[in-house]
Amino acid sequence: MGDHFFSADPQSADVRRTVEARIWGKPYVFTTATGVFSRDRLDIGTAVLLRETEPPKRAGTFLDLGCGYGPIACALALEAPKATVWAVDVNNRALELTGVNAVAAGVADRVHAALPDDVPEDLLFDEIWSNPAIHIGKPELHKMLLHWLARLAPDGVAWFVVGKNLGGDSLQRWMTEQGYPCERVGSAKGFRVLRATR
C-alpha cells in the first residue's frame, strides 16, 4: 500500500475502531482508523509523555504537533478549560478523527485540527506538546522543529517524547545548541521526556 501515518491522504480503507485510554486520571474513548499513527492503542511514547508530566492548567494557546487522532489535544483542552489547542498533522484522516474525538470529549469548540500551512502565521504558542515523527528523517525533523519552536511565546515551554534508541539524547543536545535550552524531565520504557524553552 505504501501508506505511512505521515501520508497526507492514506489509501488504505478507512476502517474505524475505538480505543480506551486514561490520561491524567481521566478516562477517554477515542475513535481511530487505519492509516493513522498507533490506531490500536495509545502509543507507548505518548503514554510516557503524559505520565511523566503534569497537566497544564493555564490559559493560553497550545499546540499538539503531529496530533494523530488527537489524544494529546483532547486531554490538553479538557485539563485547561481556558486554553485553545491547535492540533496539527499532515494526515487528513488523522485531522478528521481529531475533530470526532474533540466532539466526544466535549472540547470541540477549543480544538482546531489543521494542516501545518493552515495555522495562522502570527500565532505564538504558550505550550507545544509532541511525540514527533522521528521516522521522517533527521533533516526533515530538524526543519519541522525549528519552524515550530520559533513560534514559542517568550515564556513558552515545549514538551517532547523521543525514544532513546531513536536519538532522544542527541535531540536534546541539538535543541539546546539551536538556542532552545532543553532538559530531560523523565525517562521510562526506553523513552526520554524533554522540556525545551526559549
Automatic annotation (TrEMBL):
Residues 29-195 form the Methyltransferase small domain. Keywords: Methyltransferase, Transferase. One of its GO terms (molecular function) is S-adenosylmethionine-dependent methyltransferase activity. One of its GO terms (biological process) is methylation. It holds the Pfam family MTS. This is Methyltransferase. It comes from Kribbella jiaozuonensis. SUPFAM superfamilies: S-adenosyl-L-methionine-dependent methyltransferases.
